[in-house]
Amino acid sequence: MLDFISLLSSIVNMPGGIHPPIAVVAQWANLAVNEEDVVLRPNFIFWIACILGPITVLMVGARLWVRVCYQRNVGWDDWLMLMATVRAHTQIPVDLHQG
Asked: What's the rounded Cα separation, in Å, for the pair 2 and 56?
């Protein structure tokens, strides 16, 4: 634990704080972009959303069904969860890779 604290204090006490020097930030622009990852990442996100979206709806529905039918005790957190699920599933998809 002492090593972590000394490391943290050395980072905070660095000249300029915890921000990288301008020369390091300038080098970031020269880094090569892996084109393969850029193409595959949207497909991966799409399939994860297609799998986890229905699972989310089923789990929220099951929770609300138990809270309404069996416990007869629906709280504010249940309504908030329902609103968040509806909001998340009704957003208009935006394609960020247009022309």
From this structure: 43
Q: Which residues have C-beta within 8 Å of that of residue 42, sequence separation ≥ 6?
A: 97
pLDDT in tens, 53-63: 899 999 999 99
Whether the Cβ atoms of residue 82 and residue 64 lie closer than 8 Å to each other? yes
Spatial contact of 49 and 24, defined as CB atoms under 8 Å apart:
no
CA angle 37, 57, 45 (to 5 degrees): 5
Give the CA radius of gyration of the chain: 23
Give the pair of three-digit tokens for residue 80: 């908030």
Is pTM beyond 0.85? Reply is no
